[in-house]
Specification:
The chain is α/β, with parallel strands linked by helices. The chain has 3 domains: 191 residues, Rossmann fold, CATH 3.40.50.980; 180 residues, 3-Layer(aba) Sandwich (Rossmann fold), CATH 3.40.50.12780; 102 residues, ANL, C-terminal domain (GMP Synthetase, Chain A, domain 3, 2-Layer Sandwich). The chain is built from 17 helices and 26 strands. The longest helix is centred in the N-terminal third of the chain and has 17 residues. Belongs to the ATP-dependent AMP-binding enzyme family.
């Protein structure tokens, strides 16, 4: 009976975040869109600049399916690159600014980048990477007004490129919402990085999910503490167009500057790794005054109770989200319940530490037995692997059908994160499968140990890895980063752990110093594993 009712232009449009930009510029043309130092752009200007960018790239021969790379910090150009190439059906590959030249060269070659936009600050790094490329892309320099040094590598600068483009360029939505929109490479800690491909549909839906799940109002003020090269900034470059908000750019995280910008521009939202929130909480008291109605998202492990308590006192409300590059960043959320407000801070912290439930527009998140793909009991104890399925999941890994097939085995995306499910359906990670420490046949969660260590008032952050041991196979080795001006002796750390942990879980070695991190604030555990092996060799 319904079979003769088909799609047509009147009743079907491919989902694409390009729609958000056009509407923001049409409905709110003079509303402030971008703040970068002394520079200000409204939504009409951003839309025009993106159309100029698309036109200029088209004149350079860029078209559907071509890769355009970017080695940029959080600047207006990076925002515009989330739209300009997509208007042509091209694919944006955002590059991690903290990677080495060899890894960047691999990504540029593997992604077949035709053009790379490079900030002057990273010119030496880009120059080394280009020298290693088999097919070096054409360089377009971005001369950001916020820096004074850095060489030019290309034949044209970004603003000159835009000036050559047509401000009336006609932007068309993709014919198929499944078309690729961006390419994001994973860290590659166990081999070459894998290229995660996003589609227009997923980018659109996750941008909307950010609004719904976080309860974002129209016209928020968002501070870019999260790198846009990381999962495309969790899709917030597109989210901010959907709500016609204001984006405050930030080249790099600086605690003092962040707090100043929050006050100056009445920032309402920001995102970041746990280390970002811990750093803000540990700031001098005088610098934390005057924050009103700020909401922050934290991904991965939730901050320790002491950090949450201090953030609350500062006037910052924290929401815990969880995800991976393969699911566009945040794909689950721990939604605080009204009754939690009456609980002691330690209990609230434990509840907030859970990864929660799937975001509204991600179809499902389950904790399954990795062998049988059957759900584990909701008892808070049975361990399985977190798996996702739904529209906010990557197309797959570029040029890597084997890895794609393995990731999607059984019709689920396998995260590699081990977790339990509580009676209310909330998920909590116990560990990465590769991070579980097996000591004398007993499984030890590194996350549990890290949580205990972070409860000590002198500890800013902690990471625990396995250290080879001739008797037990491996034992926990704790790497600890202390708060400024504070000290902690081995014996005090040991006593603290013994107070909160079973004897076999207590770390046998403590190492104090800054933790190695990625550009997104995640601790590089592979580096710490190598350090632990070296310590074992010296024992």
């Amino acid at each position: 009976m319904y079979k003769d009712l088909g799609r047509n232009q009147a009743n079907y449009t491919a989902l694409s975040p390009l729609s958000f930009l056009r509407k923001a510029a049409t409905v709110h043309p003079q509303r402030l869109a971008v703040i970068h130092g002394e520079r200000r752009l409204d939504w009409a200007q951003v839309y025009q600049r993106c159309r100029r960018l698309a036109s200029a790239l088209q004149r350079m021969g860029i078209g559907k399916g071509d890769t355009v790379a970017a080695l940029l910090p959080n600047t207006p150009a990076m925002i515009e690159l989330h739209y300009g190439p997509a208007m042509l059906g091209a694919v944006l590959n955002t590059l991690n600014t903290r990677l080495d030249a060899q890894t960047l060269a691999f990504m540029l070659d593997h992604g077949e980048a035709r053009i790379v936009f490079s900030d002057r600050e990273f010119a030496p790094l880009m120059e080394r990477a280009l020298a290693l490329c088999e097919r070096p892309p054409q360089v377009i320099d971005v001369d950001d007004v916020e820096i004074e040094e850095g060489a030019f590598l290309g034949q044209i600068e970004y603003e000159a490129l835009l000036a050559s483009g047509d401000p009336e360029f006609v932007c068309e939505l993709p014919a198929d919402e499944w078309e690729a929109i961006t390419l994001n490479y994973t860290s590659g800690t166990t081999g070459d990085p894998k290229g995660v491909v996003y589609h227009h549909r997923g980018a659109y839906l996750n941008a909307v999910a950010n609004i719904i799940d976080w309860g974002m109002p129209q016209h928020p003020v968002y501070l870019w503490t999260l790198p846009m090269f990381h999962c495309n900034g969790w899709c917030f470059p597109w989210t901010m167009a959907a709500v016609a908000g204001t984006q405050v750019c930030l080249r790099r995280f600086d605690r003092k500057q962040v707090l100043e910008l929050m006050r100056e521009h009445a920032v309402s939202h920001y995102c970041g790794a746990p280390v970002i929130h811990a750093a803000l909480a540990a700031a001098p008291e005088h610098s934390k005054q005057g924050l009103v109605g700020v909401k922050g998202q934290v991904a991965g492990a939730a901050p320790p109770a002491a950090v949450l308590e201090e953030m609350e006192r500062m006037g910052v409300e924290i929401t815990h989200v969880y995800g991976l590059t393969e699911v566009y960043g945040p794909a689950s959320i721990c939604q605080p319940q009204a009754e939690w407000a009456q609980l002691p801070i330690a209990e609230r912290a434990e509840l907030n530490s859970r990864q929660g439930v799937a975001c509204l527009l991600q179809e499902d998140m389950q904790v399954l037995d990795p062998d049988t793909l059957q759900p584990v009991p909701w008892d808070g104890a049975s361990v399985g692997e977190i798996m996702f399925r739904g529209n906010i999941t990557m197309q797959g890994y570029l040029k890597n059908p084997r890895a794609t097939a393995e990731a999607f085995a059984g019709g689920w995306f396998h995260t590699g994160d081990l977790a339990v499910v509580y009676a209310n359906g909330a998920v909590k990670i116990r560990d990465r499968s590769k991070d579980v420490i097996i000591s004398g046949g007993e499984n030890i969660s590194s996350l549990e140990l890290e949580d205990v260590l972070c409860r000590h008032p002198a500890v800013l952050a902690a990471a625990v890895v396995a250290k080879p041991d001739p008797k037990w196979g491996e034992t926990p080795c704790a790497f600890i980063e202390l708060k400024e001006t504070l000290e902690l002796a081995d014996e005090d750390a040991l006593a603290h752990c013994r107070q909160h942990l079973a004897g076999f879980k207590v770390p046998r070695r403590f190492v104090f110093g800054p933790l190695p991190r990625t550009a997104t604030g995640k601790v590089q555990k592979f580096t710490l594993r190598d350090a632990a092996k070296e310590l074992a060799d010296l024992d």
